[in-house]
Write a structure and sequence with these properties.
The complex is a heterodimer of chains A (666) and B (355).
Chain A lengths: L1 E3 H4 L11 H11 L3 E6 L5 E5 L13 H11 L20 E4 L4 E10 L9 H9 L7 H13 L3 E5 L7 E5 L4 E3 L7 E3 L4 E4 L4 E4 L3 E2 L11 E9 L1 H11 L4 H6 L6 H17 L4 E9 L7 E5 H8 L5 H10 L3 E4 L3 E5 L12 H12 L24 H11 L3 E2 L5 E2 L1 H6 L20 E2 L4 H11 L7 E10 L2 E12 L2 H15 L3 E4 L8 E11 L2 E9 L1 H6 L6 E8 L20 E10 L4 H9 L5 E10 L8 E10 L8 H19 L2 E2 L3
Parallel strand pairs in A: 4-7, 18-21
Antiparallel strand pairs in A: 1-3, 2-3, 5-13, 5-14, 6-13, 7-10, 8-9, 10-11, 11-12, 15-17, 16-17, 19-20, 21-22, 22-26, 23-24, 24-25, 25-26, 27-29, 27-30, 28-29
Chain B lengths: L6 H21 L3 H12 L4 H9 L4 H32 L23 H15 L3 E2 L5 E3 H4 L10 H5 L16 E3 L4 H10 L4 E10 L11 E11 L4 H16 L5 E6 L4 E10 L16 E10 L1 H6 L8 E8 H9 L12 H4 L6
Parallel strand pairs in B: 1-4
Antiparallel strand pairs in B: 2-3, 4-5, 5-9, 6-7, 7-8, 8-9
Helix pairs in contact in B: 1-2, 1-3, 1-4, 2-4, 3-4, 5-9
The chains are: A alpha+beta (666), B alpha+beta (355).
Chain lengths: 666, 355
């Protein structure tokens, strides 16, 4: 909402030296958020207020309400609103009123003879400052009143309207032509204002074009009514029409404000059109807004704020805001003004807020928190998501965050069934309505995007995945390399660095994205919890990665085993010794078989490490040469050349017997 | 007459050997040459040791004096060798060619956590020290938990202030629409229902809004909410929580302001703004020109929220602080556009170290 500083000055005289920036700051700290301060060409300044900060304050949807806040903040008087003469009462302007929609309806009939009077310049300037164009005297006055006191009014051309005006639900199937919107279809749930013959307006939202005032209008019916919050809001949502008027009704307006609005309108009208004939007025009040009454104990206020506030300050603040304060022995009984009694003020907590905000939250001290002596959340119980994320980062991968929705194309290529996913009703893009059942598709997309400006990528993400069964925490990692074997083994190394009993198994169920030449089931303490594999060519083709291999890992963190108890392996007391071997074995023989056979050859063998493997040139087809390093840890005496040579012969014999290996011919 | 050699002849030999050794030593220009000098003087077949072997052939009465001369010569050469070795070590650099120190260093590491994650963990640690528990609510929640339980009246416009991603039918149940959580506060009621006060809890997580994106707004972003429920929790206590958060994140004083704010689930409610760290408060695209950025709304839980959680609002009070984690990350590192944080762009993310 826009607020004109000049307009505010009609109601409140700010202390000397207080300028727009200062007003914006004070309003922001104590009342509503001023988002922007803009000087106008003619010397005024406009404050742009964030409407979200006004949601609970129907009294602030006009300049007078804002002026009241400033009068409290700066402790200066608030001027009374001017009131014009009221015409004599009639009974022919208002008909039946639906009490579910309308609690007060006031109608005034008047006529202006002769040429149409112009809107006074000062009113046009006020409206122009807040971005409202002039549309003739009657509409301008209606707008001015709304932006002054926050009460919408509506003006009908009386020569084309047949009172009495009544309020009721619309008929179904009626198309209405509104003043400044396209045709709308009203159904039975949209409350309307109608005259004897037809619908003349959608209650609280907008009038119908056929009865709108124009340059030729000489007779006018002014409507000022209190429409209920929920029907107006539903109706605005249904019609897709949010207007300045509906925005105010949605917040909840008090019935008393109708009188304020009519009085101000008539004051302005008589001044602008001295020859106006006020023909009659009818005011029906079905249910008056009751002021809220709240008892607030002194102790409640002091304990809630955290520091004592003098009774005099409490009384002064509340009185200036329009509350009546009745002070008792240990507290106060507060009667809220009606403009704060439509839902805004209902509890002692609301009174606490009024006092605290005007004192200023910024001026309250910070009171230290006492830490209770109870068992401290153990650092050993860090959430598994954090443990895994920190391990993956330490392994040289970079964490990325991607959206929870994922593309249809990648989902299909990765082997996920669309029908198994949860979907958004209103997705961010037409092909992204599925919530991710896996982190892999989005990681693949992120990798492809990054590979446009670098050679290789190593990334991971930790986050939730979704299915009809619910959501579960996952960790996924991805590395790329032109050599697929390297990519796979790097990611296997990353996996092993996580610990938690993670290992690979050859048999099990594989996801659709895993290529059959390089895939494995990941187990944690023997239980399958994920997959490691290279992406299929189909997935890579889809994201334009034909020339690079992509290894992916996905873990279900809910299944990760608890960390095993950690014990230290003491360093050897005697120097270790060892030897390297290169042996030729059949392709079908795994490294695990080779290592196990070598290790079993001598009890002093402490470890058998893989060095390299080689195929080609001198190695016969169907075989490969594997290089390994055998390390012995002596227990009684340092090993000399003799015992080492004996062990080496034992290892070769064992390899020959167990896996048919023979020493590489040198 | 015996055949003992004359001591003078032996001493002359020693003098010659010593002289030769010192001369050669002086001329040596490398450690290898110095090693040759050492061998020729003091080696098994070296000149001075050859003289030492002859001492035993002298008349016993001469041996002590000549022997002492020989040992003095050995020591002199040894000392000179050590001095020369140090001089040569000092004069010769480790590398044949000096290093071009402007060459790029070999990266110590390439991995790391996302800056939002890093900040989340920092806050976890800070709140753990204040004895807060860590809780995690579900990302798929429902209208009941996100709005009904939090004192949003039916059809209240505030329900629309959060543009929620609702899940498509048929998975939405008739009486409780499911959604991606639009904020974290719904998790507080889940926690309160299952835990006895007094309690202190933080529950970080990602939330989702169906709105158009710009430099300050994302569809997916992180919040970090802290809730304390106890007897007599006041606004001034709440300010202490706010200070804890800012100290943790920035480690230096940052200009902030605490102002009134409205959210249905708190009464009273507030907003913490911090001075825009992108422009230093001068006004820029990130702060819409006002120099301040909302980073932390919060307030005391509304009595209706406490009641929903089964707590008596006359007995229990509390304080919420909800941190817009992405905004704090932007402020901490001077990132002008929030969308960068979800871009997975390694050109940006690789700049973050673990410090």
């Amino acid at each position: 909402m826009r607020i004109s500083m000049r307009w505010l000055s009609d109601y409140v005289a700010l202390p000397p030296g207080v300028g727009p920036a200062e007003v914006a700051r004070e309003l922001t700290l104590r009342t509503v958020e001023v988002e922007q301060v803009t000087p106008t060409a003619d010397g005024d300044t406009v404050l742009e207020v964030d409407n979200k900060s006004l949601t609970n304050r129907p009294d602030l949807w006009g300049h007078y309400g804002m002026a009241r806040e400033l009068s409290v903040i700066y402790r200066v008087p608030l001027a009374d609103l001017p009131r014009g003469p009221r015409p004599s009462s009639t009974t022919d302007l208002i008909g039946d009123l639906d009490p579910a929609v309308c609690s007060r309806f006031c109608a005034v009939a008047y006529a202006v003879d002769g040429p149409a009077p112009e809107t006074p310049l000062w009113i046009r300037e006020r409206l122009a400052a807040i971005g409202e164009a002039s549309r003739g005297l009657h509409v301008d006055l209606s707008n001015y009143v709304m932006f002054a006191v926050g009460q919408p009014t509506h003006v009908y051309d009386a020569d084309r309207t047949a009172p009495p005006l009544s309020v009721s639900p619309s008929e179904t199937g009626r198309t209405l032509r509104l003043v400044s919107a396209g045709p709308v279809d009203a159904d039975g749930e949209v409350p309307v204002v109608r005259d004897r013959e037809r619908v003349v307006g959608v209650a609280g939202i907008m009038g119908v074009a056929e009865v709108a005032v124009d340059d030729g209008t000489r007779a006018v019916i002014l409507e000022a009514a209190t429409f209920a919050t929920v029907p107006v809001r539903r109706s605005a949502l249904k019609l897709g029409l949010r207007t300045e008027s509906s925005a105010r009704y949605e917040k909840g307006l008090d019935t008393q404000r109708v009188g304020q609005a009519v009085d101000l309108y008539l004051h302005l009208l008589v001044a602008a059109a001295p020859g106006v004939r006020l023909l009659g007025m009818q005011d029906e009040v079905l249910r008056e807004t009751e002021p809220a009454r709240i008892a607030v104990a002194d102790r409640f206020l002091h304990r809630g704020i955290g520091s004592p506030v003098p009774a005099g300050d409490v009384d002064r603040i509340l009185t200036a805001l329009g509350f009546a304060v009745d002070r008792g022995d240990d507290g106060i009984t507060v009667t809220a003004p009606t403009w704060r009694s439509t839902g805004d003020i209902a509890l002692p907590h609301d009174i606490l807020e009024e006092v605290a905000r005007i004192i200023g939250y910024d001026d309250l001290p910070a009171a230290p928190l006492t830490v209770p002596l109870k068992p401290v959340r153990s650092l050993n119980r860090r959430p598994v998501e954090r443990v895994v994320a920190e391990r993956l980062a330490a392994a040289g991968l970079r964490e990325v965050l991607t959206y929870p929705w994922t593309s249809d194309g990648l989902l299909a290529a990765c082997g996920f069934e669309r029908g198994d996913t949860l979907r958004l009703a209103d997705p961010p893009a037409p092909d992204r309505e599925c919530l991710r059942p896996s982190l892999i598709p989005n990681l693949v997309e992120a990798a492809a995007a990054n590979l446009r400006h670098r050679d290789r990528v190593g990334v991971f993400e930790v986050g939730a995945v979704f299915s009809a069964a619910g959501e579960s925490p996952r960790a996924s990692a991805l590395v790329t390399d032109v050599d697929g074997r390297k990519a796979f083994l790097r990611l296997k190394g990353v996996l092993e660095s996580v610990g938690r009993g993670l290992a690979l198994a050859a048999d099990g169920e594989y996801p659709g994205w895993a290529d059959r030449s390089a895939r494995a089931v990941v187990t944690s303490a023997g239980t399958p919890i994920g997959s490691l594999g290279l992406l299929t060519r189909r997935v890579r083709r889809l994201v334009g990665l034909d020339a690079v291999q992509v290894a992916c890992l996905e873990l279900d963190l809910a299944g990760l085993a608890a960390p095993a108890a950690f014990t230290v392996d003491p360093p050897p007391e005697l120097p270790e010794a060892g030897f390297d071997l290169s042996v030729v074995v059949a392709d079908a023989v795994t490294w695990a078989d080779v290592a196990a056979a070598a290790r079993a050859a001598d009890p002093l063998i402490h470890r058998v490490a893989f060095l390299d493997e080689f195929r080609g040139s001198w190695v016969p087809a169907g075989q490969r040469c594997v290089s390994l390093r055998v390390t012995l840890r002596p227990t009684e005496a340092t090993l000399g050349a003799g015992p080492l040579a004996a062990t080496r012969a034992e290892v070769l014999r064992a390899l020959a017997d167990a896996v048919g290996a023979h020493l590489r011919a040198s | 007459m015996t055949d003992h050699p004359m001591p003078d002849a032996v001493l002359a030999e020693l003098a010659a050997a010593l002289d030769a050794a010192l001369t050669e030593l002086g001329a040596a220009s490398s450690l290898d040459e110095l090693d040759t000098v050492r061998r020729r003087a003091l080696g098994r077949s070296g000149a001075i040791l050859a003289v030492r072997r002859r001492v035993g052939t002298l008349d016993p009465s001469e041996r002590r004096a000549v022997g002492a001369e020989v040992e003095a010569a050995v020591e002199a050469v040894t000392r000179a060798l050590a001095a020369k070795e140090e001089a040569l070590l000092d004069s010769q650099p480790s590398l044949e060619y000096p290093v071009d120190i402007t060459l790029p260093g070999t990266p110590a590491r390439t991995g790391g956590l996302h800056p939002t994650t890093r900040m989340r963990y920092d806050l976890d640690d800070a709140f753990a020290a204040l004895n807060f528990e860590l809780y995690s609510g579900p990302e798929i929640s429902s209208e009941r938990y996100e709005f009904d339980h939090l004192n949003f009246p039916t059809d209240h416009p505030a329900r629309e202030s959060m543009d929620t991603y609702w899940l498509a039918s048929p998975v939405t149940s008739a009486d409780d629409r499911r959604c991606l959580r639009p904020h974290l506060t719904g998790a507080s009621v889940r926690y309160l229902i299952t835990h006895e006060p007094p309690l202190r809890v933080v529950y970080p997580g990602r939330v989702y809004r169906n709105e158009s994106t710009d430099a300050r707004h994302e569809r997916a972003f992180w919040q970090y909410e802290a809730l304390i429920v106890d007897r007599d929790i006041s606004l001034t206590t709440g300010k202490f929580l706010v200070d804890t958060i800012l100290d943790t994140v920035f480690g230096r004083p940052v200009p902030t302001r605490m102002r009134t704010g409205y959210f249905p689930f708190v009464e009273p409610g507030f907003e913490i703004d911090m001075q825009c760290q992108v422009c230093g408060g001068d006004g820029c695209r990130t702060c819409h020109g006002v120099g301040w950025l909302e980073v932390m709304p919060g307030g005391r839980p509304h009595p209706n929220v406490l009641r929903t959680a089964g707590l008596d609002p006359d007995e229990w009070t509390g304080f919420y602080v909800n941190i817009g984690l992405d905004r704090l990350v932007m402020m901490r590192y001077g990132i002008a556009d929030v969308r960068a944080l979800h871009s997975a762009d390694l050109r940006l993310l690789d700049q973050f170290d673990e410090g």
